[in-house]
């Protein structure tokens, strides 16, 4: 599998996503993807990664992964690892195209045909208009019109209706992050009883509407310090959340472990943790119940499947991340179907129905709240031909 051309596509209408197209010497193309740091990664692809890739006798994923791992920048969520993750997904796709097999088969085969999803209640413009990761980039429209997929506004304004709507569509899990504004106001140092009680009402309304039929995932984005988040978690306990996600940053391992122990709530973390060596201490210190692995950020499918196997030796589940692009969702779905410790897949209906389907075709099918993959070769996702014709993209290429 020799690479003849490395191409990047940077859409001007999304400031965070970058696609990487890997062309082999037989005319096949693999599609990779990365999210955040778009133009910086684009530069690194052409300046550093492409010369290595183009020089490889074989760019099969394991071989290329080793070749693209530098001695400086081999760890952490920086540009090197994020480039590697994006390229690696493209190489698995290319390998699938060459062998006419879906990625799930290349991973050893699906141990299940489909898996339950949960909906992350973002709106279409969540983290969409700028590169900011703060609430000012939530893209709120000030209307909770369900036909526009404004699920973020909806979880604040009409949480019960939103939960009912999701349940009626077959989706039995939802993730919301209503504590984030309070965290931002104090850099996570303090939450008032008033803010706490007001925010807990959202969970009460959801439970009153749908009872225990809905799994509730609470996203805290690692914004908190330990004392206020402990108050939040104790407050949430009566609503029986399925998991608490990133209560504090995942590098505060002892503190997460303490929170897990003191509150008795399940902890989900891992989407920003890079590779096996990043995940291992979380497992060793009993800090995680569910690993929310992100296939691109953790270093690609090559690394992600090893992370999944490592987690399995600790009887720890994986629940792969979405929110970082259509190709990543497809890669995560192939992964979770191939791993026995896969329990659920994150999806964002506001994205699937807007920019994911505007930019790409071949999304993993979702039916009755479950996601699967097709028998299409590779991961199945292709860039929309209209996007490739548009003048709203920056295209760069490196050739052998
Ligand atoms: Mg998360």
Automatic annotation (TrEMBL):
Gene3D superfamilies: Enolase-like C-terminal domain, Enolase-like, N-terminal domain. Residues 156-266 form the Mandelate racemase/muconate lactonizing enzyme C-terminal domain. GO terms for molecular function: lyase activity. SUPFAM superfamilies: Enolase C-terminal domain-like, Enolase N-terminal domain-like. Pfam families: MR_MLE_C, MR_MLE_N. InterPro entries: DgoD-like, Enolase-like_C_sf, Enolase-like_N, Enolase_C-like, Mandelate_racemase_C, Mandelate_racemase_N_dom. Keywords: Lyase. PANTHER family: D-GALACTONATE DEHYDRATASE, D-GALACTONATE DEHYDRATASE-RELATED. This is Unannotated protein. It comes from freshwater metagenome.
């Amino acid at each position: 599998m020799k690479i003849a051309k490395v191409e990047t596509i940077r859409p001007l209408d999304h400031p965070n996503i970058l696609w990487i197209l890997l062309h082999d010497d037989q005319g096949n193309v693999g599609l990779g993807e990365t999210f955040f740091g778009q133009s910086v990664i684009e530069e690194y692809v052409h300046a550093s990664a492409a010369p290595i890739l183009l020089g490889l006798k074989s760019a099969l994923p394991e071989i290329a992964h080793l070749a693209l791992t530098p001695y400086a920048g081999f760890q952490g969520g920086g540009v090197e690892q994020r480039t590697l993750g994006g390229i690696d997904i493209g190489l698995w796709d290319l390998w699938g195209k060459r062998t006419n097999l879906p990625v799930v088969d290349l991973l050893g085969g699906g141990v299940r045909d489909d898996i339950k999803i949960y909906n992350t209640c973002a709106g279409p413009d969540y983290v969409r208009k700028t590169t900011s990761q703060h609430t000012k980039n939530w893209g709120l429209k000030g209307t909770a019109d369900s036909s526009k997929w404004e699920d973020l506004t909806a979880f604040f304004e009409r949480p019960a209706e939103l939960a009912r709507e999701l349940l009626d569509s077959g989706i039995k899990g939802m993730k919301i992050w209503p504590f984030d504004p309070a965290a931002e106001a104090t850099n996570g140092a303090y939450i008032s009883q008033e803010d706490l009680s007001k925010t807990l009402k959202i969970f009460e309304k959801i439970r009153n509407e749908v009872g225990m039929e809905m799994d509730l995932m609470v996203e805290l984005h690692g914004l908190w310090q330990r004392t206020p988040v402990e108050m939040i978690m104790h407050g949430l306990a009566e609503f029986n959340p399925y998991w608490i996600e990133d209560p504090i940053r995942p590098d505060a391992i002892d503190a997460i472990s303490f929170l897990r122990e003191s509150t008795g709530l399940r902890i989900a973390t891992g989407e920003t943790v890079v590779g096996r060596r990043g995940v291992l201490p979380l497992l060793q210190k009993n800090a995680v119940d569910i690993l929310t692995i992100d296939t691109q950020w953790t270093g690609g499918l090559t690394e992600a499947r090893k992370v999944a196997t490592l987690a399995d030796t600790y009887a720890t589940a994986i629940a792969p991340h979405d929110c970082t692009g259509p190709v990543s969702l497809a890669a995560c779905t192939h992964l979770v179907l191939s791993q026995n410790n896969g329990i659920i897949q994150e999806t964002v209906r506001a994205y699937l129905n807007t920019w994911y389907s505007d930019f790409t075709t071949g999304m993993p099918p979702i039916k009755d709240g479950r996601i699967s993959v097709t028998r299409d070769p590779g991961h199945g996702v292709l860039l929309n031909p209209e996007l490739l014709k548009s003048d709203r993209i920056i295209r760069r290429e490196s050739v052998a």
